[in-house]
């Protein structure tokens, strides 16, 4: 469920949603992202336990620190977002904690701007990036990507589709997307060139771009934009959290795996991949996906640098 067409994906992003009243106000830029209390599941997940054989793979410098520093852009509910108390929660957060536990470590999950995460990995500011990144060959040139989920792109409009939007033809329409996402790249690299070739008006500005996906959703609900493009689990979640103000149009398309970002050729790569596979095998992985209502994206085998495009 990534938000690209048939071109290589650069990013996978989702939408985080704030409390219900937020979506009834005019769109404005927000300095932080938050999720509604109703968004937090009540189900719990059994804590993962350390696997000595996997812990033995952890590099000495990481082991001595006792933690994994994990970067995430906490604006993509239900994958990663902030709850009403400001705590970073979501599927990726629970998986990060479980991976760390398998390796005998604690997860230190830090909020970061999406576009700063991969550079932060390269600069050794973070050890892992878990923020709905699509695994791509382009990314694999600079970092290792460990697959753990499958996602695809989806499109949402106001309930009832008042502008009669055709998901296959967004030419000339006002489309909200998050900056740096696969959806933004799809508009710039695929949809708008196709619009020009067809003699149609392109999507204005290569999309109405926001740094937070919360603002993308607000822009659609407030009527600033006519369409929202995001990852399918995020669109599905947005429909629920906006109390029927939005609807999905068309099918989910261009599915591809999400990948955990690790420094290129890092000793951590094998350890993290093994931890993901162990969580799949012992059922913890399924519990986490079930908790957040995203089990449709489950995978059976975690791979390293397995992008097809």
TrEMBL record:
<dbReference type="Pfam" id="PF00497">
    <property type="entry name" value="SBP_bac_3"/>
</dbReference>
<keyword id="KW-0732">Signal</keyword>
<feature type="domain" description="Solute-binding protein family 3/N-terminal">
    <location>
        <begin position="67"/>
        <end position="296"/>
    </location>
</feature>
<protein>
    <submittedName>
        <fullName>ABC transporter substrate-binding protein</fullName>
    </submittedName>
</protein>
<feature type="signal peptide">
    <location>
        <begin position="1"/>
        <end position="26"/>
    </location>
</feature>
<dbReference type="InterPro" id="IPR001638">
    <property type="entry name" value="Solute-binding_3/MltF_N"/>
</dbReference>
């Amino acid at each position: 469920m990534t938000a690209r067409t048939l071109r290589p994906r650069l990013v996978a992003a989702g939408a985080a949603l704030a409390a219900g009243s937020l979506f009834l106000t005019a769109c404005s830029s927000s300095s932080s992202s938050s999720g509604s209390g109703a968004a937090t599941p009540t189900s719990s997940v059994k804590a993962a336990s350390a696997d000595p054989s996997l812990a033995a793979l952890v590099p000495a410098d990481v082991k001595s620190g006792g933690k994994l520093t994990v970067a995430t852009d906490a604006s993509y509910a239900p994958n990663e977002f902030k709850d009403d108390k400001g705590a970073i929660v979501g599927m990726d957060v629970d998986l990060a904690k479980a991976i760390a536990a398998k390796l005998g470590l604690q997860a230190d999950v830090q909020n970061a701007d999406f576009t700063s995460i991969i550079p932060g990995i390269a600069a050794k500011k973070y050890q892992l990036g878990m923020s709905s990144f699509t695994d791509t060959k382009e990314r694999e040139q600079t970092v290792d990507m460990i697959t753990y989920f499958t996602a695809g792109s989806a499109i949402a409009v106001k309930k009832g589709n008042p502008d009669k939007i055709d998901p296959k033809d967004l030419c000339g329409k006002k489309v909200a997307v998050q900056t740096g996402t696969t959806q933004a790249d799809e508009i710039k690299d695929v949809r708008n060139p196709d619009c020009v070739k067809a003699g149609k008006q392109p999507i204005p500005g290569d999309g109405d771009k926001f740094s937070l996906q919360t603002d993308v959703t607000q822009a659609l609900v407030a009527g600033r934009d006519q369409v929202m493009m995001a990852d399918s689990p995020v669109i599905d979640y947005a429909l629920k959290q906006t109390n029927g103000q939005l609807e999905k149009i068309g099918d989910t398309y261009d599915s591809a795996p999400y990948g955990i970002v690790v420094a290129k050729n890092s000793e951590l790569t094998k350890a993290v991949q093994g931890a993901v596979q162990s969580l799949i095998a012992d059922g913890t992985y399924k519990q986490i996906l079930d908790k957040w209502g995203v089990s449709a994206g489950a995978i059976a085998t975690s791979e390293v640098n397995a992008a097809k495009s």
